[in-house]
TrEMBL record:
One of its GO terms (biological process) is proteolysis. This is Chymotrypsin-like elastase family member 2A. Residues 1-16 form the signal peptide. The lineage of its organism: Eukaryota, Metazoa, Chordata, Craniata, Vertebrata. Transmembrane segments: none annotated. PROSITE patterns: TRYPSIN_DOM (PS50240), TRYPSIN_HIS (PS00134), TRYPSIN_SER (PS00135). One of its GO terms (cellular component) is extracellular space. Keywords: Disulfide bond, Hydrolase, Protease, Serine protease, Signal. One of its GO terms (molecular function) is serine-type endopeptidase activity. Residues 29-269 form the Peptidase S1 domain. Pfam families: Trypsin (PF00089).
Length: 271
């Protein structure tokens, strides 16, 4: 689900303290379509048990980055108690058991030390250590990541995937959604009529055409880009505009994975 919405007090967003779709159960990428089953094998449904009663609901996306580790957004972490979370991999239809899923308990949570609960400050990234490893059942895969510092050019087409809201009206498919989405270079996205100073060099913008965007419930999920001969997760869904998600010149903003490769490697090796 996508994110906290953004932060607009003086800049046009409004802050939020939990993922937009925290209490919403049906949603999708805006402007997207049903993904083909068994395509985005590193996609994760991060699920939360609000009352610790064994009833989990999808709150965010994520990516498998090793057999024991899931990458998601820091703002998706509503509690540092791992017992409230589970990661579901091999998922396609959230409301139908298809036999491809693995339901995995979370053992530990590490939020980036630079995360301040303020989206515009960046560092919106977290890693979850699983209690048991993801096993290869043919429906899962470890995500490829970009090279450290790698920057995508303006107009480069990636794909956003997730179970995020279509917005506040309309269809609510249960299956994983996907949509092509074009990168907006930092020199454009940081202009005052776009996101201005709210977007940092450690973020990636994509969309802003008023048609395709992430939305509530997509938070923490991947920006999938085909670079250097492989699909790689270049971004983690972080925030977007308050209100309607697919606004012109207000693209979806992602944590730029290539800016955090040293931290990701360090945590995954020690956690």
């Amino acid at each position: 689900m996508i994110w906290l919405v953004a932060l607009l007090s003086c800049a046009g967003l409004i802050g939020a303290e939990e993922p937009f779709n925290h209490k919403v159960h049906n949603d999708r990428v805006i402007g997207g379509s049903n993904a083909q089953p068994n395509t985005w094998k590193w996609q994760v449904s991060l699920q939360y048990d609000s009352y610790n009663d064994g009833k989990f609901s999808h709150v965010c996306g994520g990516s498998i980055i090793s057999s024991y580790h899931i990458m998601t957004a820091a703002h998706c972490i509503l509690s540092m108690n791992p017992a409230y979370y589970r990661a579901v991999v091999g998922e396609y239809n959230l409301y139908k058991y298809e036999g491809t899923e693995q339901f995995l308990k979370v053992d530990r949570i590490v939020v980036h030390p630079g995360w301040t609960d303020q989206l515009e400050k960046g560092n919106d990234i977290a890693i979850l250590k699983l209690a048991s490893p993801v096993y290869n059942n043919g429906y899962v895969s470890v995500a490829n990541l970009p090279y450290p510092g790698q920057t995508l050019p303006n107009g480069f087409t990636c794909h956003i995937t997730g179970w995020g809201l279509i917005d506040f009206v309309g269809g609510v498919p249960d299956v994983l959604q996907e949509a092509p989405i074009d990168v907006v270079g930092h020199s454009i996205c940081s202009q005052p009529t776009w996101w201005g100073s709210l977007v940092l060099e450690t973020m990636v913008c994509a969309g802003g055409d008023g048609i395709i965007s992430g939305c509530q419930g997509d938070s923490g999920g991947p920006l999938n880009c085909y670079t250097d001969g492989a699909w790689r997760v270049h971004g983690v869904v972080s925030y977007g505009p308050a209100g309607m998600c697919n606004q012109v010149t207000k693209p979806t903003v992602f944590t730029k994975v290539s800016s955090f490769m040293d931290w990701i490697y360090s945590v995954s090796q020690t956690l």
